[in-house]
């Protein structure tokens, strides 16, 4: 019976080899190949304020790497979020409770950071994974779809002259704040979340204004790091601000997206562009329909479309469950100052 430790781990040239072994195993599970640049991957995770972080599962006796979670820390319209890019438990340890234990540790990280949500994607045609998340972690499917719009870097949108888009500064944030109570979607809490994103290191807020200087839409980008492709990209979400006509809404969103695409190209964060769309928003759905992109899928099989799952604050901050690893001697490594 394996005794194991789960802890945040600072990746360097030495520990990267353990991580890469697991990433290659993850790639095989997804019927794809690791296409990353090792040097760039290491540099990305060694940064003082890395976009992605690693929770590593290690054997206490041999120090062998047995599993990992790669996650990104986002600032969005709903508040702070951890987005779980990858979770892997090595084949030899499947169905022994390690996956659930790693999720518990990710919840602990979320609590330390004051995060409201943890989200991730799971393929619709992976019922075993869906059962695990729904029954073991109490996760629920979210009312959002994620679309891969990376082709916009090759064929960018032509923004409408009716809208001006810029990265929001303090004056823009103050303007938005003045609309609280006048725009139903813009609550005081949401405005606080927008301000937090504007001041976060790996996030940015963009605003679209009409010719009269009235804000019509707001968008937030978060830098995202993917372990399979080992590339930087953006996760992007938007919100309409009182635009009633769905075509005008789509035009405002198109202007925002065109600006974000240029920002990605200028900063080198153009490896992918994942747009999160609220399925309950007619304006957002209409915008995406006009672009013609499909929700992200695991493979070309239509049934492999990714569903977005998540844990809310009520579950993240609930009393911690009993030890779920099959060992009464499992222990946690102390976190170092770097972690």
Radius of gyration: 21 Å
User: What is the end-to-end distance?
Assistant: 28 Å
The low-pLDDT segments are 322-339
Q: Determine the strand fraction and express it as a percent band.
A: 25-35%
Judging from the principal axes of the Cα atoms, what is the shape?
globular
Q: What is the string of helix and strand elements?
A: EHHEEEHEHEEEHHEEEHEHEH
- Can you count the beta strands? 13
Mean of residue pLDDT?
88
The major sheet is characterized as: 7 strands, mixed
Strands side by side in the biggest sheet: 1-2-3-4-5-13-6
Helix content: 25-40%
CATH superfamily of the largest domain: Gcn5-related N-acetyltransferase (GNAT)
Task: Count up the helices.
Answer: 9
Q: How many domains?
A: 2
CATH topology title of the largest domain: Aminopeptidase
Q: Please identify the structural class as seen in this structure.
A: alpha+beta
| Named CATH architecture of the largest domain | 3-Layer(aba) Sandwich
CATH class of the largest domain: Alpha Beta
Architecture overview:
The relative contact order is 0.18. Helix 7 (246-267) crosses helix 8 (282-291). 31% of the residues lie in helices and 28% in strands. It folds into two domains: 4-141 and 308-316, Gcn5-related N-acetyltransferase (GNAT) (Aminopeptidase); 150-291, Gcn5-related N-acetyltransferase (GNAT) (Aminopeptidase). The strands form two sheets. It has a seven-stranded mixed beta sheet, with helices on both faces. A six-stranded mixed beta sheet has the order 7-12-11-10-9-8, sandwiched between helices. Strand 9 (203-209) and strand 10 (215-226) form a beta hairpin. It is globular. It contains nine helices and 13 strands. The model is unreliable at 322-339 (pLDDT under 50). The protein is an alpha+beta fold and 339 residues long.
